From TrEMBL:
Keyword Isomerase applies: yes
Enzyme Commission identifier(s): 5.1.3.1
Catalytic activity: D-ribulose 5-phosphate = D-xylulose 5-phosphate
Recorded metabolic or biological pathway in which this protein acts: Carbohydrate degradation; pentose phosphate pathway; D-xylulose 5-phosphate from D-ribulose 5-phosphate (non-oxidative stage): step 1/1
Organism: Cryoendolithus antarcticus
Cofactor: Co(2+); Fe(2+); a divalent metal cation; Mn(2+)
Highest taxon, organism lineage: Eukaryota
Keyword Amino-acid biosynthesis in record: no
Annotated cofactor note: Binds 1 divalent metal cation per subunit.
NCBIfam families membership: PRK05581.1-4
Record-given protein name: Ribulose-phosphate 3-epimerase
UniProt record similarity statement: Belongs to the ribulose-phosphate 3-epimerase family.
Length: 245
């Protein structure tokens, strides 16, 4: 499996000093920042948009290589992923991870926004790649992993996602309980794609990491477990060790 990547979710950080929270977590050993974008529509919660990402970007050095330290992993829990690609690219997003369920939505406000990219995940991936970002595709707990095979097996490399995110809670809020019944999805994806970056998000902590690591996840998101810890660097270290072993 590819190298372990620890991506603290800033959803549980102190929003009043977000820039410092971001630079601190990187200094404490985090690889990426997981940035949860919610629109109050795809999920029943609101977070932040491009201006906040623009403001925190200078607090974290841009990654030297693809998927390197300092990657902004933007988890787009939004109903219209196509609409925001350019704005997030400008704001400093490195990895644009949209939801499979949203890529098919036809509720774009304007008719001109109802282009192929919002109805076809592969076209959306190509569009993200064309703007120089990596592309990720996320699935909610109710979505089966096998819908992704056709996309992952695409012969056009531009249409193949760089990462798959298997949600281990219903998206929307931090601090929820890890769903171990999502692990067969991770196992199946790992079996088919030994080199794929597989991310898990929701309820990950020192208590749940072994189950996720054994299933084959290598990109670990943790919000409350990292930002709620007395010693975040110790939690980051333990999560990494669990994936390595
Ligand atoms: C939930 C978000 C997660 C969340 C994880 O919708 O996608 O990234 O911040 O928080 P914890 O680690 O506390 O479950
Ligand atoms: Zn997330």
């Amino acid at each position: 499996a590819p190298a372990p990547i620890i991506a603290p979710s800033i959803l549980s950080a102190d929003f009043a000093s977000l820039g410092k929270a971001c630079s601190d977590t990187i200094a404490q050993g985090a690889d990426w920042l997981h940035v949860d974008i919610m629109d109050g529509h795809f999920v029943p919660n609101l977070t932040f948009g491009p201006p906040v990402v623009t403001m925190i970007r200078p607090h974290v050095e841009r990654p030297k290589e693809a998927f390197g330290k300092g990657t902004f992993d933007c988890h787009m829990m939004i109903a219209e992923p196509k609409k925001w690609v350019k704005d997030f690219q400008k704001a400093g997003c490195d990895l644009y991870c949209f939801h499979y369920e949203a890529a098919f939505s036809s509720n774009a406000e304007s008719p001109e926004a109802r282009t192929e990219e919002i109805t076809n995940p592969k076209a959306l991936i190509k569009y993200i790649h064309g703007l120089g970002m990596r592309a990720g595709i996320a699935i909610k707990p109710g979505t089966k992993h096998d819908v992704l095979y056709e996309i992952l097996d695409s012969e056009n490399k531009d249409e193949v996602p760089d990462m798959v995110l298997v949600m281990t809670v219903e998206p929307g809020f931090g601090g929820q309980k890890f769903m171990p019944d999502m692990m067969p999805k991770v196992e199946a994806l790992r079996k088919h794609y030994p080199e794929l970056n597989i991310e898990v998000d929701g309820g990950l902590s020192e208590k749940t990491i072994d189950v996720a690591a054994d299933a084959g996840a290598n990109v670990i998101v943790a919000g409350s477990a990292v930002f709620g810890a007395e010693d975040p660097s110790d939690v980051i270290k333990k999560l990494r060790e669990a994936v390595e072993s």
